[in-house]
Structure formats: C-alpha cells, structure tokens
Amino acid sequence: MKKLINDPTNVVQEMLDGFAAAHPQHVRLLEGLNVVVRKDSPVKGKVALVSGGGSGHEPAHAGYVGAGMLDAACAGDVFTSPNVEQILAAIRHVSGGAGVFLIIKNYTGDVLNFEMAMELAGDEGITVDRIIVNDDVSVEESARTAGRRGIAGTVFIHKIAGARAEAGGSLDEVKASAELALKNLRSMGMAISPCTVPAMGKPTFTLPDGEMEIGMGIHGEPGIKRTKIMSAGQVTEILMGGITADLPLRKGDEVALMTNGLGATPVMELYIMHREAVSLLQAKGVKVCASYVGEFMTSLEMSGCSLTVLRLNEELKTLLSAPSRTPAFVQV
Amino acid sequence: MKKLINDPTNVVQEMLDGFAAAHPQHVRLLEGLNVVVRKDSPVKGKVALVSGGGSGHEPAHAGYVGAGMLDAACAGDVFTSPNVEQILAAIRHVSGGAGVFLIIKNYTGDVLNFEMAMELAGDEGITVDRIIVNDDVSVEESARTAGRRGIAGTVFIHKIAGARAEAGGSLDEVKASAELALKNLRSMGMAISPCTVPAMGKPTFTLPDGEMEIGMGIHGEPGIKRTKIMSAGQVTEILMGGITADLPLRKGDEVALMTNGLGATPVMELYIMHREAVSLLQAKGVKVCASYVGEFMTSLEMSGCSLTVLRLNEELKTLLSAPSRTPAFVQV
After folding, report:
1. pLDDT 10s digits, B268-292
2. What is the pLDDT of residues A283-297, one digit of tens each?
3. What is the model's pLDDT at position A235?
4. A73-77, A111-115, A206-210, B65-69: which range is least confident on average?
5. Any idea of the CA torsion for A6, B240, B285, B309, to the nearest 10 degrees?
6. Interchain CB contact of A230 with B (< 8 Å)
C-alpha cells in the first residue's frame, strides 16, 4: 500500500486536524468527535444544516462547512457512517433556534444513524427535518443501499439548501428548496481503477488492464457493466444517456453541470469530459448556466469521474449562484 | 494506458475547449493558439501578467487567469514549452499600455521561448519584463533545467504579482514584489507513482512497489534519492528540512504554506501531510498565516505531493490576501 499516511487506523483524526489547521477562518473541530463545525456556529435564528458520511470522499463533507452552505459535517471512519453520538452532538452544537436540517446520502448506515439522531434531538426539543439524497441513476439497489445511492450531486443540495437557510428561510422553506433541487438532480459515474481503504491495505476491487466499470459507486460498489476502455466521448454519452433517460431535458432547459473527479483523474481529463458533456447538452438545445469541474466528492485515489446535472428554474438559479465561503466552495 | 481522453494528440486543445466552456465568466481562448486570456483583457492601464508552460500541470496555469492574477496563460503540449508564436500573441493581446510581466518557470525551453517572445515584443514597442521562478530546492541542475526548477511556488508568484498589478503597480513595482516573493519562496516535492504522457502511452519512469522518490520533478525528472515508503511525518520532515536548510526560519516568522497534490494523491493524504508540516513549523515558533491545500500544480496522474513555504512580511501578506477571481483560485 503506497500512501502518504502515518497510522492507518488514525487517518480520519489526522486529516481533520490538518483540515482545521488549514482553515481556521471557516471552521473548527468539536473535540474528540470528528465533527467539523462552522467557526461562528451556532448562528442564532438561522436554520442549521448538518451533513456528513464516511470519510474518504474529501473534500466532502467538511470542505462545504462555512457561510452559505453547511453548519456541521460529521466524519465517519473511511467508507463508514458517522455514529449517532457524533450526529447528535453536531445537531446540538449548531442548533440556533430555527431548526436543524440534515442532508443524508442514501446509504443504509447513514440513513439509520442520522434518523436515530434526529429522533433523539427531537426528544430534546430541537426541531429537525431531513432530506435523503439519491441522485445516482446507475443502480436501484446496491450492497450499501436500498434505492438509489447519493453521490456528487449532494454538493448541489448543500449549496441550494445552504443558500436558502443563509437567506433566512424557515426549516420548511429550506426543505422545500432542497426537495425541489433533488427532483431536478441526477448523477452517474464510472471508474477506471480502484482505491484502497487504509485500514484494509488492499484495493476494494480489481479492474483488469484495459477495462472500465460504468455506474460504479463511490465506495467501489458494483456498477452496471464492465467494458473495454472507451473514449471520453463514448463514456460521456453513456453517462449523460443514463442521466437524461431519467431526467428528460428539453430544448431551452437550463442546467448546472458538475464534472467530478474521483481522486486520481487528472484535471486535464476532467476538462475533456466536461467538453463532451457540454457539447451533448448543447446539441439538445440545453443551456449550461454554471459549470463545476474538479474534485467535489472523491473515493480516495479511485480513478474515474461522475457527471451531475441539476435542472434549474429561477429559484434554483438564484440559490446556486448565491455567495458561499467554505474551504472547498468559494463563490463571490 | 487507461485515460479518459479521445485522441492522445489532441488532449490540450480539447482540455482548453472544456476549460473555456466551463469558465466563460473568467476567460476566453485565443482562437487556434492554445492561449487562455482574461475575459476583459486587455485591461487598459494595468500591467499585464503572462505565464504558461507545458500542459499536464492543471490547474496551472490557465486556472489562474482572471481578476487579481494572470492576464494570459500559454499552454504548450504536454510537458513541452509553449512556442514563441503563442507567447508573443499572448503579450500582444493582453498589453494594456502599462507593460507586460512574464512569469516563467525555470526550464530551459520555457526560458528560451519566453525570452525570445519578450525580445520580439520589445521590437514592437511593448515594454516587457520577467521573472524566472526557481523555487524547488531539490536539485541544482536537471535534465530540463540549468539551476533550480520552478514548481508549485509559482502559483504564489502569480498571486503576489497579480495583486500588485491589480492595485495599480507599475511594471517595476510588480517585478519588485515578485522578486521579493521569490527570495522568500521555497518548495520541495516527492513522488510515489509515475504518470503517463498521453502521446507516449507509457509511464515516464518506474518506481518499484514500496518505494518513493524524494525531490522528483513535476515532469518525472530524477530527484535526490529513492527510499522505502515512509510515513507522512517522515516525508514531511525531509521536505521541510530541505526547505528550511535553504530558507532559515526564525521564531516569530510568519509564512504561507501550500501542500500541493501532484494529481492522484487523495485529499485526505494532503491534509495529513499538511498537519505534519504545520506542526513542524509551529515547533520552530513559526506562524502559519495562510494555508493552501489541494491540487495547484500537478503532473497528470502522478501520485505524490510538494510543500511550499512563502515567508511573509507586511507587503507580501497584504498582496497574498488580496481578492482574486480565477477558475482555480477564488479569494474574497
């Protein structure tokens, strides 16, 4: 295993220490809990947003903590849900009196633990609501999931809900905006090489030379098919085909487009993929109003990428373009 | 070769097409030249900044074109200097009457072509000056370089010179700030796996299982030694040792610290490295005023990282923290 780490069992704490040391203007850590909170939390009178999940997907989710996005991110072990104690501590800490909204990726462990923490916080008198993000069109069921998985599109939910909360929206309004975004959100990914969980020491799966896997999950969960390596144009057609089969786009529609690298894909290749995706959308008469290209939700050093389309209306366009100041998502 | 590309001989143009499609609010392309310019260029009365180099180091340098940083970036083929025609076209295009400043990484081909373009632009009556960035302390000579190489620290030169130019500095003042920064700038890197230039189809070098190379260049040029894979703490000590041997830091000094991924290193590992680097500096009584963690100057899908230290005084601190709005470097 070739990794720049110290103790494989301590990667999450050490990463979060480095993260907090790097971004003191945005965040701080809740001691001993692997929870990253907005530096100025709790923000009185604002709906507070809490997300999180297994580690190994950086910059998700801690990179999205800050003004205009999340109030807290709970980091589980690598590819493992955060526990109820962490989530409950995050909810208690960020609660500013206007309610707390949880953004949960649809994995069985995450849903279980976030919902349990929601119930316990409710018993303490904190009003909590939630959305379960399931943007991945690849598969309907998977090893870790009942229903579709949540992947990189989750970052758009952080942004949309975060902007609505920052603008003074109520808990119901924040939830309504998040649900509107989710209804218009689809993603699909693929991998060309695996990743290694530090504590395991060996790759999560193998992909023979010259092969790729379409629809692979961000923990290496099986996709829909293995094929010979294809061109960027062919791969984009398959991913965008999956997305638009489920979210029909019409001439004149406006969208935001994210081309997300899984960890080891060169920035150069992400832009080549993005070019293909923009060109497919333009050919349908769809206007790409906002582009995001880079690493937003990774899988350690997995090589591959995902595409995410968010269909916009005026409300979503306004919320998406609102300012945000977080370690991994600065918008002016 | 497992890459998300179409035609290996056309990767640079396709990447730049994707880049321009993604960031129309910041940049546009000079047709047929692989030159990215600031959207509102030429900016009348402002010193214009031009940089560039071989492709494969994305987001360098096109990602730094925009308000507060570069006016143009010239993209050569992968790991190949841009040619004189490109650089001259960039100079002509961005010249706003206050002079043009070139930021050149110290590689023989780059220096030759940028200086030739400078001379030709001078013949046309455009005042041009330049800085040659050689922040890499690893080696004094190398396959592509006389003297030290220019690596990730170049991004701090873009930022410092860009802020001075944006604030209305003259060509001499922009150069003076850039030289002040360079005097206080040192970097050192290492690799744990190689990269493949698309048109070559095979890795630029090999590194046996369980080995890493200290001081490797961003084109895979030899470093100073190969060793067994070490912990993040040990690697950081070696890199920071090389940096501080050349740039002695004293108690009370203030620095900016960049932990830069070379392409395939997980964000998690970069933060673990950053933690070690911050802790070594703090142990010396040095204050880290600003942190940058991520991919700033890559080597395609090479795995590894570099550390960069910029020692700050009041002038440099002000310029570094000034706002910038570019595809890969947004500061508020």
Report:
1. 999 999 999 999 999 999 999 999 9
2. 999 999 999 999 999
3. 98
4. A206-210
5. -120
6. no
- The total of other beta-carbon atoms located within 10 Å of residue A176's CB is 15
pLDDT, averaged across chain A: 97
Q: Which of residues 179-198 of B touch A (CB under 8 A)?
A: 192-193, 195
Q: What's the residue count for chain B?
A: 332
Contact yes or no for B266 and A300 at CB 8 A: yes
Q: Does B141 touch chain A (CB under 8 A)?
A: no
Q: Are the Cβ atoms of A265 and B19 closer than 8 angstroms?
A: no
* E strand or H helix that includes residue B142: strand B141-142
Domains of chain A with CATH codes: 8-183 (3.40.50.10440), 185-322 (3.30.1180.20)
Question: Residue B54: is its pLDDT beyond 90?
Answer: yes
Residue A55, pLDDT score: 98
Best A65, A204, A259, A267 member to test B by mutation, with max B CBs in 10 Å, is: A267
Local structure of residue B71 (DSSP, 8 states): S
Are B133 and B157 in contact, with CB atoms under 8 Å apart? yes
Buried b (16+ CB within 10 A) or exposed e, B277-297: bbbbbeeeebebebbbbbbbb
Q: What is the per-residue DSSP string for B194-227?
A: --B-TTT-SBSS---TTEEEET--TT----SEEE
Place of tokens 């080549």: A272
Would you state the torsion angle of the CA atoms of residues A104, A109, A112, A118, taken in this order, to the nearest 10 degrees? -50
Cα–Cα distance measured from residue A240 to residue A290, given in angstroms and rounded to the nearest whole number: 17
Using the predicted structure, report yes or no on whether residue A135 has a pLDDT greater than 90.
Answer: yes
CA distances in angstroms from B288 to B246, B291, B317, listed in the order given: 18, 7, 11
The runs of H, that is alpha helices, within chain B are 11-22, 84-94, 108-123, 154-166, 171-183, 232-246, 267-283, 314-321
Write down the pLDDT at residue A313: 98
Return all residues near B314 (Cβ < 8 A) that are at least 6 apart. Answer: none
